[in-house]
Design a protein that fits this description.
Blueprint (H helix, E strand, L loop, with lengths): L1 E4 L2 H4 L13 E4 L5 H10 L4 E4 L9 H4 L6 E4 L14 E4 L15 E4 L21 H5 L3 E4 L8 H13 L4 E6 L5 H12 L8 E5 L3 H8 L4 E2 L13
Parallel strand pairs: 1-2, 3-4, 4-5, 5-6, 7-8, 7-10, 8-9
Length: 235
């Protein structure tokens, strides 16, 4: 088994989340062009190539369009169709992809029993549980760590209504798109426009693993987004 990883952070075997013991070899392909990636996969004799980025940064759908391997699969990060003819299958389950939507997919849908996403945190460095944040703070705290693209105007309106019905509550929002002061101010302003005081909205730029785990301890109730639900953050 070969692991083709486009992110150098996870291609380093010293990284605790890389789990090199589960694969025979890991190749860092971040520096390769799509043509070079195709040549490498073919020369390695890969029989089944699985793309796990979806339509996110550093995906390899362009390379897969050139038929890197005899069997090519889209999985994990994106449950929508790739639209790439040479991607043969997409892995899903009964809930994430309703049968009536299969007609919109260029791939053949292969359904897994239970949930199609599997996470294992047995070896992750997760802080021990603490008392609920409400006991330490004296007020309930909601939270959402989804990417900014999933937090639409409807979400802001519904969350503002939720905060109004729970007068002493606050909400924590953290994602990498909040790195700039302008982005944080704009997000807070959207809540203020719905009558929520700015001091009830706590916004943070994206954090690394350790600090993100600490931030979870400050939240009583985590909120999902829709129509684009969370996956990594929910798991």
């Amino acid at each position: 088994m070969l692991g083709y990883d486009g992110a150098s952070e996870y291609a380093d075997p010293a990284n605790e989340h890389c789990a090199p013991k589960f694969v025979d070899q890991i190749r860092n392909t971040a520096h390769l062009s799509n043509e070079q990636f195709i040549d490498l996969v073919r020369s390695d004799g890969v029989d089944v190539l699985v793309e796990i980025c979806g339509h996110s940064g550093r995906h390899r759908f362009i390379s897969m369009g050139g038929r890197c391997a005899p069997v090519q699969i889209s999985y994990f990060n994106y449950i929508g169709t790739s639209g790439v003819p040479n991607v043969d299958y997409i892995l899903a389950d009964a809930n994430s992809l309703p049968p009536e939507e299969e007609k919109y997919f260029t791939e053949k849908v292969y359904r897994l029993e239970g949930g199609f996403i599997c996470f294992n945190y047995e070896e992750a460095n997760i802080p021990p549980p603490e008392s609920p944040a409400i006991k330490r703070n004296g007020y309930p705290t909601f939270g959402c760590f989804a990417s900014a693209g999933k937090i639409n105007h409807l979400m802001i309106r519904l969350w503002s209504e939720m905060l109004k019905r729970c007068p002493n509550s606050k909400i924590v929002i953290c994602n990498k798109e909040l790195f700039s002061r302008d982005a944080r101010d704009y997000l807070v302003a959207r809540f203020v426009a719905h009558g929520i005081s700015a001091n009830r909205i706590m916004v943070y730029a994206g954090a690394d693993w350790e600090n993100l785990m600490k931030l979870y301890r400050d939240v009583d109730v985590m909120l999902d987004t829709f129509p684009y639900n969370g996956s990594n953050s929910i798991a």
